[in-house]
Amino acid sequence: MRALFAGLLLLVASTCFAQILESPGRGMLGDAAGPEFLPVEEAYQLEVEILDAQQVRLYWQIADNYYLYQHRFDFVLEDSEGSIELATEFPPALERSDEYFGEVQVYYQQPDIILQAQRKPAGATLTVTSQGCADAGLCYPPRTQHFEVDLAAAALKPVEFAQYKQGFSMYALAGFSLPWSCNLMTFKHTGFEQ
After folding, report:
1. Neighbours of 62 (CB within 10 A)
2. If you classify domain 40-173 with CATH, what class do you get?
């Protein structure tokens, strides 16, 4: 009799557990699941355009309720002679009070940045680093993208991370692009109303 009761109890418990897991928007304990976040490459889509032999335009399409920090942009242009100095022209940004960075300037929607090379390289590598967050409270790690550029010929080619000569990431080599998700790396934001 005990075995029959234990079996029946196990059947009922596993049925209830399966229903909880199949419920849309519910976690394992039946609580409402948190917000879903876009992969970094969907949240922040970068377009690069060569304007002339010394100017490059960087243009982001940023998903709704996501933003990029102005102070977290970094641009490096290098050729066979070394690093090429860049003058950067930023558009106006929104000022925000950030829990971790203090007073900052951020971009929602479509920042359009112009880079002016101080000399004319033929073939070079452009490295673009940016960092952003979602209004719902997740900050992504800094993202670095590489491009082979020939400003004189107006030619541009993205370079995959694994092909680039510097840096190593097991996640990138395995094909993953993950936002920080552990508690120590997740930043909570408040007061970011548009």
Report:
1. 19
2. mainly beta
Are the CB atoms for 152 and 120 separated by under 8 Å?
Answer: yes
Closest to 149 in 3D by CA, of 70, 74, 51:
51
State the DSSP code for 32: B
**pTM value > 0.70:** no
Compute the distance between CA of residue 55 and CA of residue 114 in angstroms, rounded to an integer: 7
Decide: residue 48, CB within 10 A, 0-12 exposed, 13-18 middle, 19+ buried: middle
In our burial notation (b when 16+ CB lie closer than 10 A, e otherwise), range 90-129 reads: eeebeebebeeeeebebbbeebebbbebeeebeebbbbbe
Return the pLDDT at 152. Answer: 86
Tens digits of residue pLDDT in 32-83? 667 899 999 999 999 999 999 999 999 999 999 999 999 999 999 999 999 9
Q: Are strands 124-130 and 112-117 parallel, antiparallel or unpaired?
A: unpaired
DSSP codes joined into one string, 94-140: EEEEETTTEEEEEE-S--EEEEEESS--SSEEEEEEE-EEETTS-BP
Give every residue of the chain whose pLDDT is below 50, as ranges: 4-5, 8-30, 163-194
